[in-house]
Structure formats: structure tokens, C-alpha cells
Amino acid sequence: MFEDIPVDVSPMYEGERIRSANMFVELAGPKSIGAELVQVKDNVEDGKIEVKGLELADMKEGEIYPLGILIEIQGEKLERELEGVIERRTHELCNYVKGFMHLNQRDQIWCRVSKEAIEAGFKLEHLAKALSILFREEFPIIEAISITILTDKVDVEVFLENAKSLYEERDSRARELSDEDVDVFYGCVMCQSFAPSHVCVVTPDRTALCGAINWFDCRAAAKMDPEGPIFEIEKGKILDEVKGEYENVNVVVADRSQGTFDRVYLHSVFEYPHTSCGCFEAVAFHIPELDGIGIVDRDFKGETPLGLPFSAMAGQCSGGKQVEGFTGLSLEYMRSPKFLQADGGYERVVWLPKEIKDELADYIPADLIEKIPTEEDVNSIKEIRIFLEEKEHPILERLKVSTEEIEEDEKSVKSSEIEEIETVEDSISTVAYVPEMTLPTSRGIKITLKNAKIYAEKVIIKRE
Amino acid sequence: MIIAVSGKGGTGKTLVSSLLIKILSETGKDVLAIDADPDSNLPEALGLEIEKTVGDIREELKQDTAAGEIPVGMNKWDILDYKIMESVVESPEFDLLVMGRPEGSGCYCAVNNMLRKIIETLSSNYDFIVIDTEAGLEHLSRRTTQNVNVMLVVSDISKRGLLTAQRIGKLSSELDINFQKIFLVLNRVKQENEDLIRNKAVETGLNVIGVIYDDAEVTEYDIEGKSLITLPVDSNPVKTISKIVSQILN
Questions:
Q1: Where are the alpha helices (DSSP H) in A69-123?
Q2: Which residues of B touch A (CB under 8 A)?
Q3: Distances (CA, A) of B74 to A174, A176, A215, B155
Q4: Are strands A67-74 and A144-150 parallel, antiparallel or unpaired?
Q5: Taking a C-beta distance cutoff of 8 angstroms, is the pair A39, A72 a contact?
Q6: Domain A11-175's class?
Q7: Which residues of chain A are within 8 Å of residue B106 when distances are taken between CB atoms?
Q8: What class has domain A180-393?
Q9: How far apart are CA B101 and CA A411, in angstroms?
């Protein structure tokens, strides 16, 4: 199949690096320009190969030249949406060619040709030929393929500009990719060495807690290292779209957490929040007094309105625990349209450190941004309440509703005592407000309190 | 073949590493030097300048990721791969990769996992890899040296230097890290004391593969910050390391 090509073509050469001491020329890379682009087109002349500009034989040893690789494809089932996926294979396929090094993708490629390959008579034309065969083999839906290699600076510059605008177009499409658009999520247990029951579920709308890997990265990792810590999760039946609960995700987290927990809501801090590893970028925490959510990130050194710094808060919920009212998250997740959507998203957020608020300014709804206080505006829950009231934060609606509900409940139970309770509310501080809480019982009875406010004259905490 | 050089800080790891690199690269094979000591000075010893360390790249990637600056369609593995390649200092004789500063706060699991694989792939392209490890025992517990074929433990004549050498030997067997070979290199030995030091070194449980004498020239090079690989061919350190190399290769 590759008999006209003077060097070996095989997957075994993947990962080949060419030291500058062994290289004939460098193409693209940090000291020059270059790009590769796959485009779905009509009227593609199958098998056409063209090298525009200098061939390797005309290049000077040790020099660096620009490089453009244009791959045009056609096929009945080919859509423009597939261009990115197909283009990503260019890296691996180029590396099949012995004596040709290829790094990275898009306009960040870096190639080298070895002296040995040149001695064997290798030309860019052969690279194009190999790619043409390999792509068709790899993607049977490609019915026609034509490859153009550019090495002239002016040509590559024009090509690069065009390619950049197409990458941007693709990225904005990819950014719109959401949980509903895919059938597979990814799980990551890289942190299990110190958080043995933590299973990170990574979806298009929810990056890993550490912020380091998104759905696309996981897809690449699971493919590169199928036995590795990142694996596919078929999402299965949707149990609750808003909360982000999926039948098969529950099954997989139960399995991978050694049965420690078996339900997870991907987009809520309540009931079954996502477990937290220990290395999350930020924590979302419920502030019971305001029924709002505060967020604190790792770089925030002060105390949160709950009186705890990040480190103490992280200590409470890390290690793979599922702690209602707390969840670790990445800053990127705060840019997601599904950010804690079950809880009300940003409408529920009542406190943020200034630094992340500024960083996320474009992602917080414009009508809310001034209504969410930071450490510069407030220092305590009382001050937050005043701030929220001044700015008319939507959380007030929620607070009103829940207080009314409580009043009604109380009315129906002990109507005579209502007045008394109302008057003492301000002098006795709320110790805890719990939207839902299960009391420890035995013998198959389950007692659940909803919207409970617990008052206590004295709280005694003993260390055993 | 991967050769790692370890030992207590200040015992002469960098001297041994740089001469190993020099001598191995004279065989005409491809040699990669890895400086895994955060307080690194291997580049100076090799007479090379570095622009960026792996640590710098790791921080950059973390920052770019946190700021949401990495295009969605780009693969972080590939980006890292490229940046690591970019950080490799290439000389006609050998290449150098500097690990650089230790991690900051936050999670490094993902990025380190990627780095491990990338550096493995990169390394597989070389005939010889020489790792100048960080002082002490951390490289063992973090298993950054677990695929090492030959471990050279360097000690000077101090009790503490020998104790560290002994611990490296013990810990590696406790952690089930099986180096194919592990040897002790004694450094800064006064010729007249050689027998005495060799006797003391028995306690480390490691076989001595070479003895470098206290060398006025090395001291002078160190003071002036001169590249150690320019030490004369007939100097004692170069001759000792040459012998060690031929012993390892046989």
C-alpha cells in the first residue's frame, strides 16, 4: 500500500521525536508558522496530491520553513461538524511516517524531518500520499480526499489566517455542546489515591472539579489510555434533567466509589451533590440563614461569611464525601449554562470573592452582577442580608416564600403560639436552617424534616 | 537505558551526572539529560542555558486553563507535549530537560499524569537518559525513578552522606522499586583515606563502583561556575566516570 514511499509507515513510529542533532529541517513550530486544516468540500478530486513551494530536496539542511497541510474531503455522510474530529487524527497519522515528527494540532503544529529520511529519498509528496491513504482507511466515510502541502511563506500566511477563523467558528460550536448532545460522559478516579470514594463525572456542561480536564480532554485521555483513570460512562436514562441525574451515572458512581454512594445530582448542592476530591478549585456552600449559596475559591485567603476559610470548608467536604449543602467545583463550571441550575444558578448565589467575580463577569447574568456581594462589600451574614435587600437580589423572593410556608405550617399546628415565635425570632439566633433533613432512627422508620429551622439556647460540642 | 544519580544534597550528584552525560554522548548515541532537582544547577554544569522548565509549563497550563483561555477544540495533552518539546534544550551532543520548580497549591493530579506519559514518550526516543535527581529520598516515594535501570548513589566521606546512601538502598527495596543495578559512588575522597572510607561504605549495603578523589580542579571550576564537562580528559573525575560507564555498559 505504501510501496512508493521510501520510508516505513506504521503506528509503531507514533511518539517519534527527532533531536535537532538528527534533523534535516524543521517545519512550522515555535520559530516559524504553520497550520493544518481539514475541510469538507464538494468536487474533491480523489487522490490528488500537490506540494506548493519548496520540496524537501530544495531545502537547506538545518533550516526552518513554514508548513501548511490542507486536507479536503468529500463523502455522502460527511458533515462540517466532523472536520474537527477528523483533523485531530492528522497528528497521529503524520507520526506513522518514520522520520517525520509531528506535534500538536491546528496552528500550533511543529514538524521535523530526519536526516535518515532524506537519505532514503523522502519527500513531502510522500507525506501527502501516506496521509491520503491513512485517512481513507481510518474514516471509510471519506469517499474522496485531496491533499495540498504548502511551504511558501506567503501561501502559508494566507492559509493560516483562513484556518484561524475556521477554528474559532468550530470552537464556538463546541462551546455550545451540552449534556443533551452527547450519549457518553466520562468518569475520572485520578484522585482516588487520597479520596478513595471520589468519582468525578465530567460532562460537556461540567468540567472536572480540579478544572484541569474537560469533556474533550477526557475523550482524548480515555482513547489514549483505555486502562487509565479516565473512563467512559454511558449516561443512560435521564432521571432528572434539571438536577442532572442519570440512571447509569448512578450505577457507575456506585461501582467506582465501592458502593459509598449511589446517587448523584450533577447540577445541585442539595440532596445528592457531586462528591468532592480535595483538589477542587472552589467550593459552593449553602448559607442556611439566607437559603443562598456562597462560593469560595482556593486562592481566597480570608474567611467566608460562614466564618470558615476555604481550607476549613474544603476539609469538611473533601476526601470523596457526599455532603449535602457543599460541593467542590471548578471555575470553568461557573461558566457553564448549567451551573447549579437545579438550585437557581446565579440567582441563588449570594456571596463570591471579588477576584472570581471579576473573572466571571461575562458569565454572570448582567442584571445580577451588581446584586451579588463580595468580601469588599460585606463581612457577615447580616451584612449580606442588608446588601441583598438594598440591591433587590432575587433570593429575597425565595426567602419570602419559604418564610410564608413556614408560617402557614406553624399556623396549622399551633396557631396560638405564632405571635410569640414571630417576636422572638430576632433575639434568638438561628442555629441551623435545613431545607431537608433525615433524623437518625431505627427499625425501618424514616423521619424527614422539610424546611426545618432548629433553635437551641446552647450548643455543646464535645470532642470524643 | 535510564541511569539515575541520587544522594544527599551537596555530595556531588551534579558532577557525576554531568560527566556521565559527557561520556555517554561521546559514544554517538542519543542522550537526554533530565535535571529533576528543583534547586537545579545541572544546566550550568553542562554549560547550557535554559529558558523554561517543566514546572513553568505546568504553571502556565494551569493558569491558562483556569482563565478559560485554552480553545475547546484543542487537546491539552498535545499542547503540553508541544511545550515540553519546546523546553528541551538541544545541543549537538545531547538534549536537556529541566523539571524545575515544585508544585504550587491546588490539584496537580491531572497535569502530572499527563506529564508522566509525555516524558515517558519523549524519553523513549533516546538511547541513554541520565536523571540528576533531587536530593534525598522523595524521588523514591514519588516513584519518579521507578523505571530506572541503574541507580548511582553518590556520597561524600561524611557520615550523613553515607547514611542517606544507606537509606536510599533500603527504601528502594522496601518500596519494591527494583533497580536492575544500584551502586555507590564515593566523592571527595582523600587518596590516603580511601581504604578507611571504603570500609565505612560497607555499612550502606551498596557496592562501590567508583571513587572520585578530592580534586582541586573541580573546586576551582565550582568557584568560577565553569562547565564541568570541560574538565580535562585526564583528570581523575573524568577517568573515574569513564570507568563507571564502561562497567555499566558491559
A1: 83-95, 115-119
A2: 30, 62, 65-68, 71-79, 81-82, 85-86, 90-93, 95, 105-111, 113, 117, 121-122, 124-125
A3: 11, 15, 12, 46
A4: antiparallel
A5: yes
A6: alpha beta
A7: 210, 279, 281, 298
A8: alpha beta
A9: 64
Distance separating alpha carbons of residues B227 and A231, to the nearest angstrom: 48
Q: Is A276 within 8 Å of A198 (Cβ atoms)?
A: yes
Q: Is the dihedral of CA A58, A64, A66, A69 positive or negative?
A: positive
pLDDT band at A427 (very low <50, low <70, confident <90, very high): very low
Q: Which of A70, A112, A93, A98 is nearest to A5 (CA)?
A: A98
Judge contact between A48 and A141, C-beta under 8 A: no
Q: By three-state DSSP, how is residue B3 classified?
A: strand
Task: Average the pLDDT over B77-86 and give the result.
Answer: 90
What single DSSP character describes residue A416? Answer: G
pTM surpassing 0.90? Answer: no
Which residues on A lie below 8 Å from B87 (Cβ)?
A: none
Band of pLDDT at residue A168, cut at 50, 70 and 90: confident
Q: Which residues contact B21 (CB under 8 A, 6 or more apart)?
A: B31, B33, B46, B94, B130, B229
Determine the Cα–Cα distance for residues B197 and B187; give it in Å rounded to an integer. 10
Q: Which three cell numbers stand for residue B28?
A: 554517538
In the numeric block, which cell numbers belong to residue A52? 506548493
Distance CA A361, CA B122 (A): 40
Instruction: List, for residues A330-343, the tens digit of each pLDDT value.
Output: 888 998 999 999 99
pLDDT digits (tens, 9 = 90+) for A10-24: 999 988 999 999 999
**Distance set, CA A79 to CA A38, A144, A168, A224 (Å):** 11, 14, 17, 25
Beta-carbon separation of B125 and A17 below 8 A: yes
**SS3 of chain B: helix, strand, coil, percent, to 5:** 45, 20, 35
> How many separate helices (H) and strands (E) can be counted in chain B?
10, 8
End-to-end CA distance of chain B: 12
Residue B207 pLDDT > 90, yes or no? yes
* Percent of all residues in chain A with a pLDDT value above 70, rounded to a whole number: 86
Q: Which pLDDT score is estimated for A428?
A: 42
> pLDDT tens for residues B146-198?
678 999 999 999 999 999 999 999 988 888 777 889 999 999 999 999 999 99
**Is the model's pLDDT at A66 over the cut of 90?**
yes
Interchain contact, A21 vs B66, CB within 8 Å: no
> Residue B115 pLDDT more than 70?
yes
**pLDDT (tens digit per residue) in B10-29:** 899 999 999 999 999 999 99
Domain limits, chain A: 11-175, 180-393, 397-454
B2-249 CATH pick, 3.40.50.620, 3.90.930.12, 3.40.50.300, 3.30.70.270: 3.40.50.300
Chain-chain contact of B77 with A217 (C-beta, under 8 angstroms): yes
Mean pLDDT of all residues belonging to chain B: 89
Above 80 in pLDDT, residue B109? no
C-beta atoms of B75 and A105 within 8 A? yes
> Cβ distance A299 to A355 under 8 Å?
yes
- The answer to whether A171 contacts B62, with C-beta atoms less than 8 Å apart, is no
Find the closest chain B residue to A102 by CA distance.
B82
Confidence of residue B97 (pLDDT cuts 50, 70, 90): very high
Strand A110-114, strand A100-103: pairing:
antiparallel
Nearest C-alpha of chain B: how many angstroms from A104? 5
